[in-house]
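User: Please predict structures.

Assistant: First:
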Amino acid sequence: EVQLVESGGGMVQPGGSLRLSCAASGFSFSSYHMSWVRQAPGKGPEWVSGINTGGGSTYYADSVKGRFTISRDNAKNMVYLQMNSLNSEDTAFYYCNVGGYWGKGTLVTVSS
């Protein structure tokens, strides 16, 4: 059974940083491209970032490019999202995604 468990969300002031983690299990983690997707209140899902199987290629939405960094640890079956220079538009539930599977998400709230 595929399981994705996100953690690391919380409330942060504008300009602050958070690091999200996603623990993956139930599939051959190192064989799959991983992604982060977010959904703000009242809005549809937005793809945020992706990383290839080896971690050597990363991809970002224009809205987060230069502020967010995705990484993975295949030995630990973990994927991370380092988020810097956060602003109110980053407020959303953040989900780890592989294929058609999603975790339950972790909430990031950016507010003063």
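Second:
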Amino acid sequence: HVQLVESGGGSVQAGGSLRLSCAVSGYNYNYMAWFRQAPGKEREGVAVIYTGGGTTHYADSVKGRFTISRDNAKNTLYLQMSSLKTEDTAVYYCATGSSPYNYWGQGTQVTVS
């Protein structure tokens, strides 16, 4: 049974930083990702990492500001967010799986003011 538990969300002023964590248990899939959903908007992909080789991809809106990483020893996925903007306000979810993302965390709120 795969479980994903996010933490690290909160409120921050524009220009600030936050680091989100996602603790993974049950099974390690090759791809892990962060998504977000702002009020009234569709869920969008933020970043993805191939855990085998470390290859990463980012949405254009966060490129250069966000960094996705994974600590395999701790089975934890991270999203380091810097230079935050008000438009980054959303609920952030980590996801993994095989089709391609069929396991999701409960989400963590990030509010930038």
